[in-house]
Design a protein that fits this description.
This protein has 246 residues and is an alpha/beta fold. The chain folds into two domains: 4-120, 3-Layer(aba) Sandwich (Rossmann fold), CATH 3.40.50; 158-244, LytTr DNA-binding domain (OB fold (Dihydrolipoamide Acetyltransferase, E2P), Beta Barrel), CATH 2.40.50. The chain is built from six helices and 15 strands. The chain has helices spanning 13-23, 38-48, 64-69, 105-120, 183-189, 234-244, and strands at 4-9, 29-35, 52-55, 76-81, 97-100, 141-146, 149-154, 158-164, 167-172, 178-179, 195-197, 202-205, 209-214, 220-224, 229-232. A hairpin with a 4-residue loop joins strand 14 and strand 15.
Length: 246
Protein backbone atom coordinates (compact mmCIF):
# COMPACT_ATOMS: atom_id res chain seq x y z
CA UNK A 1 0.00 0.00 0.00
CA UNK A 2 1.34 3.41 -0.94
CA UNK A 3 1.80 5.87 1.91
CA UNK A 4 1.24 9.53 1.00
CA UNK A 5 3.47 12.16 2.58
CA UNK A 6 0.93 14.80 3.60
CA UNK A 7 0.85 18.44 4.68
CA UNK A 8 -1.99 20.28 6.42
CA UNK A 9 -2.22 23.99 5.53
CA UNK A 10 -4.78 26.01 7.50
CA UNK A 11 -4.60 29.28 9.43
CA UNK A 12 -6.67 27.86 12.33
CA UNK A 13 -4.65 25.75 14.79
CA UNK A 14 -7.69 23.84 16.04
CA UNK A 15 -8.68 23.01 12.47
CA UNK A 16 -5.18 21.66 11.78
CA UNK A 17 -5.23 19.58 14.97
CA UNK A 18 -8.68 18.19 14.21
CA UNK A 19 -7.70 17.17 10.68
CA UNK A 20 -4.43 15.59 11.84
CA UNK A 21 -6.33 13.66 14.51
CA UNK A 22 -8.77 12.27 11.93
CA UNK A 23 -5.99 11.48 9.43
CA UNK A 24 -4.19 9.43 12.09
CA UNK A 25 -6.79 6.72 11.51
CA UNK A 26 -5.76 6.36 7.86
CA UNK A 27 -2.70 4.14 7.45
CA UNK A 28 -2.05 5.42 3.91
CA UNK A 29 -1.54 8.97 5.19
CA UNK A 30 1.64 10.19 6.88
CA UNK A 31 1.37 13.81 8.04
CA UNK A 32 4.91 15.17 7.72
CA UNK A 33 4.24 18.84 8.44
CA UNK A 34 1.84 21.76 8.58
CA UNK A 35 1.63 25.46 7.76
CA UNK A 36 -0.42 28.40 9.04
CA UNK A 37 -0.73 30.33 5.79
CA UNK A 38 0.13 30.34 2.11
CA UNK A 39 3.61 31.80 2.57
CA UNK A 40 4.57 29.09 5.06
CA UNK A 41 2.88 26.53 2.84
CA UNK A 42 5.11 27.41 -0.11
CA UNK A 43 8.24 27.02 2.02
CA UNK A 44 7.18 23.73 3.61
CA UNK A 45 6.12 22.23 0.28
CA UNK A 46 9.51 23.14 -1.22
CA UNK A 47 11.35 21.63 1.75
CA UNK A 48 9.35 18.44 2.30
CA UNK A 49 8.01 17.68 -1.20
CA UNK A 50 4.71 16.11 -0.07
CA UNK A 51 2.54 13.83 -2.20
CA UNK A 52 -0.67 15.40 -0.90
CA UNK A 53 -1.77 18.63 0.76
CA UNK A 54 -4.96 19.44 2.64
CA UNK A 55 -5.46 23.11 1.88
CA UNK A 56 -7.74 25.78 3.34
CA UNK A 57 -9.05 28.34 0.84
CA UNK A 58 -9.49 31.49 2.94
CA UNK A 59 -6.24 32.37 4.76
CA UNK A 60 -4.55 35.67 5.67
CA UNK A 61 -2.06 37.00 3.16
CA UNK A 62 -3.07 34.84 0.22
CA UNK A 63 -5.83 32.36 -0.55
CA UNK A 64 -5.18 28.69 -1.15
CA UNK A 65 -5.72 29.25 -4.87
CA UNK A 66 -3.19 32.09 -4.92
CA UNK A 67 -0.70 29.88 -3.10
CA UNK A 68 -1.04 27.16 -5.74
CA UNK A 69 -0.21 29.66 -8.47
CA UNK A 70 3.14 30.38 -6.82
CA UNK A 71 4.27 26.74 -6.62
CA UNK A 72 6.78 25.29 -9.06
CA UNK A 73 5.31 21.84 -8.59
CA UNK A 74 1.84 21.19 -7.17
CA UNK A 75 1.17 17.95 -5.26
CA UNK A 76 -2.27 16.38 -5.06
CA UNK A 77 -4.69 18.84 -3.45
CA UNK A 78 -7.75 18.30 -1.27
CA UNK A 79 -9.40 21.58 -0.32
CA UNK A 80 -10.87 21.79 3.18
CA UNK A 81 -12.89 24.95 3.78
CA UNK A 82 -15.96 26.38 5.47
CA UNK A 83 -16.96 28.32 2.34
CA UNK A 84 -18.88 26.57 -0.41
CA UNK A 85 -18.87 29.70 -2.61
CA UNK A 86 -15.28 28.89 -3.62
CA UNK A 87 -16.27 25.45 -4.90
CA UNK A 88 -16.54 26.40 -8.57
CA UNK A 89 -12.98 27.67 -8.52
CA UNK A 90 -11.96 24.03 -8.26
CA UNK A 91 -12.87 24.02 -11.98
CA UNK A 92 -9.69 26.02 -12.46
CA UNK A 93 -7.37 23.54 -10.76
CA UNK A 94 -7.23 19.80 -10.95
CA UNK A 95 -7.93 19.36 -7.23
CA UNK A 96 -8.67 15.88 -6.02
CA UNK A 97 -11.62 16.92 -3.88
CA UNK A 98 -13.31 19.80 -2.03
CA UNK A 99 -14.52 19.13 1.51
CA UNK A 100 -16.63 21.47 3.60
CA UNK A 101 -16.11 22.06 7.31
CA UNK A 102 -17.08 20.78 9.82
CA UNK A 103 -15.18 17.68 8.76
CA UNK A 104 -17.11 14.47 8.28
CA UNK A 105 -14.82 11.40 8.56
CA UNK A 106 -16.99 9.56 6.03
CA UNK A 107 -16.54 12.39 3.54
CA UNK A 108 -12.80 12.32 4.16
CA UNK A 109 -12.77 8.58 3.50
CA UNK A 110 -14.43 9.20 0.13
CA UNK A 111 -11.79 11.80 -0.76
CA UNK A 112 -8.95 9.42 0.08
CA UNK A 113 -10.61 6.70 -1.96
CA UNK A 114 -10.50 9.08 -4.92
CA UNK A 115 -6.79 9.52 -4.24
CA UNK A 116 -6.22 5.77 -4.39
CA UNK A 117 -8.42 5.39 -7.47
CA UNK A 118 -6.69 8.22 -9.32
CA UNK A 119 -3.32 6.52 -8.83
CA UNK A 120 -4.73 3.29 -10.20
CA UNK A 121 -6.31 4.99 -13.22
CA UNK A 122 -3.89 4.68 -16.13
CA UNK A 123 -5.59 7.59 -17.87
CA UNK A 124 -5.23 9.98 -14.94
CA UNK A 125 -3.12 13.03 -15.75
CA UNK A 126 -0.08 13.47 -13.51
CA UNK A 127 1.03 16.72 -15.10
CA UNK A 128 1.89 19.51 -12.65
CA UNK A 129 -0.61 22.32 -12.42
CA UNK A 130 1.67 25.34 -12.67
CA UNK A 131 -0.51 26.98 -15.31
CA UNK A 132 -4.01 27.51 -13.92
CA UNK A 133 -5.09 29.11 -17.20
CA UNK A 134 -4.34 26.07 -19.31
CA UNK A 135 -7.07 24.34 -21.27
CA UNK A 136 -8.96 21.58 -19.50
CA UNK A 137 -8.80 18.20 -21.23
CA UNK A 138 -10.55 14.88 -20.83
CA UNK A 139 -8.14 13.74 -18.11
CA UNK A 140 -8.96 16.71 -15.89
CA UNK A 141 -11.59 16.62 -13.18
CA UNK A 142 -14.05 19.37 -12.32
CA UNK A 143 -16.02 20.16 -9.19
CA UNK A 144 -19.71 20.85 -9.70
CA UNK A 145 -22.07 22.10 -6.99
CA UNK A 146 -25.77 22.07 -7.80
CA UNK A 147 -27.88 23.03 -4.80
CA UNK A 148 -27.08 20.57 -2.02
CA UNK A 149 -25.45 18.08 -4.38
CA UNK A 150 -21.74 18.06 -5.20
CA UNK A 151 -19.98 16.14 -7.96
CA UNK A 152 -16.33 15.63 -8.82
CA UNK A 153 -16.28 14.46 -12.42
CA UNK A 154 -13.63 13.51 -14.92
CA UNK A 155 -14.28 15.45 -18.12
CA UNK A 156 -14.01 12.28 -20.20
CA UNK A 157 -17.34 11.31 -18.59
CA UNK A 158 -19.06 14.55 -19.65
CA UNK A 159 -20.70 14.04 -23.04
CA UNK A 160 -22.04 17.56 -23.57
CA UNK A 161 -22.74 21.00 -22.13
CA UNK A 162 -26.03 22.79 -22.83
CA UNK A 163 -26.77 26.49 -22.39
CA UNK A 164 -29.92 26.96 -20.32
CA UNK A 165 -30.61 30.64 -19.73
CA UNK A 166 -27.92 32.01 -17.43
CA UNK A 167 -26.82 28.48 -16.59
CA UNK A 168 -25.01 25.60 -18.26
CA UNK A 169 -26.36 22.08 -17.93
CA UNK A 170 -23.63 19.44 -17.66
CA UNK A 171 -24.47 15.96 -18.97
CA UNK A 172 -22.77 12.93 -17.38
CA UNK A 173 -24.27 9.56 -16.50
CA UNK A 174 -27.91 10.34 -15.64
CA UNK A 175 -27.01 13.64 -14.01
CA UNK A 176 -27.81 17.14 -15.33
CA UNK A 177 -26.46 19.63 -12.77
CA UNK A 178 -26.63 23.35 -13.54
CA UNK A 179 -23.72 25.80 -13.23
CA UNK A 180 -24.22 29.56 -13.17
CA UNK A 181 -21.84 30.35 -16.05
CA UNK A 182 -22.06 31.09 -19.74
CA UNK A 183 -21.42 28.49 -22.41
CA UNK A 184 -18.79 30.84 -23.87
CA UNK A 185 -16.79 30.64 -20.64
CA UNK A 186 -16.77 26.85 -20.92
CA UNK A 187 -15.68 27.02 -24.54
CA UNK A 188 -12.73 29.20 -23.53
CA UNK A 189 -11.60 26.74 -20.86
CA UNK A 190 -12.10 23.41 -22.64
CA UNK A 191 -9.55 21.77 -24.93
CA UNK A 192 -10.86 22.08 -28.49
CA UNK A 193 -9.16 18.80 -29.38
CA UNK A 194 -11.94 17.00 -27.52
CA UNK A 195 -14.74 19.54 -27.01
CA UNK A 196 -16.49 21.14 -29.97
CA UNK A 197 -18.99 24.02 -30.03
CA UNK A 198 -21.78 22.50 -32.10
CA UNK A 199 -24.10 25.51 -32.03
CA UNK A 200 -25.02 28.41 -29.77
CA UNK A 201 -26.54 26.04 -27.21
CA UNK A 202 -24.28 22.96 -27.14
CA UNK A 203 -20.67 21.91 -26.68
CA UNK A 204 -20.12 18.20 -27.34
CA UNK A 205 -17.40 15.78 -26.30
CA UNK A 206 -16.08 14.45 -29.62
CA UNK A 207 -15.00 11.20 -27.99
CA UNK A 208 -18.69 10.39 -27.49
CA UNK A 209 -19.68 10.86 -31.14
CA UNK A 210 -20.71 7.61 -32.85
CA UNK A 211 -22.60 8.92 -35.88
CA UNK A 212 -22.76 11.92 -38.21
CA UNK A 213 -25.30 12.72 -40.91
CA UNK A 214 -26.06 15.66 -43.18
CA UNK A 215 -28.77 17.92 -41.84
CA UNK A 216 -30.87 20.87 -42.97
CA UNK A 217 -29.33 23.99 -44.56
CA UNK A 218 -25.86 22.51 -44.83
CA UNK A 219 -25.63 21.57 -41.17
CA UNK A 220 -24.86 18.23 -39.58
CA UNK A 221 -26.41 16.09 -36.90
CA UNK A 222 -24.20 14.08 -34.58
CA UNK A 223 -25.28 11.16 -32.44
CA UNK A 224 -23.59 10.38 -29.13
CA UNK A 225 -23.09 6.97 -27.56
CA UNK A 226 -26.09 7.60 -25.30
CA UNK A 227 -28.39 8.21 -28.27
CA UNK A 228 -28.44 11.98 -27.73
CA UNK A 229 -28.56 13.87 -31.03
CA UNK A 230 -27.17 17.37 -31.44
CA UNK A 231 -27.41 19.61 -34.47
CA UNK A 232 -24.19 21.21 -35.71
CA UNK A 233 -25.02 24.60 -37.21
CA UNK A 234 -24.09 25.32 -40.82
CA UNK A 235 -21.25 27.60 -39.77
CA UNK A 236 -19.85 25.10 -37.31
CA UNK A 237 -20.41 22.24 -39.77
CA UNK A 238 -17.95 23.94 -42.14
CA UNK A 239 -15.41 24.12 -39.33
CA UNK A 240 -16.15 20.54 -38.32
CA UNK A 241 -15.46 19.28 -41.82
CA UNK A 242 -12.28 21.33 -42.09
CA UNK A 243 -10.96 19.91 -38.85
CA UNK A 244 -11.82 16.29 -39.49
CA UNK A 245 -11.48 15.92 -43.24
CA UNK A 246 -8.62 13.81 -44.59
Amino acid sequence: MKVYKTLVIDDERLAREELKSILADFSQIEVIGEARNGEEGIEVIADLEPDLIFLDVSMPGMTGFEMLKKLEHIPRVIFVTAYDEFALKAFEVNALDYILKPLDPKRLTEALEKLRSSDEDEFESNEPLEDLNRKLGVNDKVFIKDGEKCYFVKLSEVRMFESDGNYVKVYFDKNRPLILRSLNSFEERLDATHFFRANRKFIINLDWVVGIENWFNGGLQVELRTGDKVEVSRRQAIRFREIFSI
